[in-house]
Amino acid sequence: MAEAILRKLNPLALPVPLWVQCRDHALNQHLTDYLVSVQAEIIGPQEGGCR
After folding, report:
1. At CA 8, angle to CA 16 and CA 29, rounded to 5?
2. What does the pLDDT profile of the chain (51 residues) look like in tens digits?
3. What is the pTM (predicted TM-score) of this model?
4. In the chain, what are the domain boundaries?
């Protein structure tokens, strides 16, 4: 469900802060990392950057 919400957002609004609450700390980190990567995929490569 969180992925679907991220995909519906305007890419210009990303990245947004997010957090996952779960008793299993390993699963918590895995899901957080996954959602961060979803945001990065939506945003795409950044123009400019360091030269």
Report:
1. 45
2. 899 999 999 999 999 999 899 999 999 999 999 999 999 999 997 665 554
3. 0.79
4. 2-42
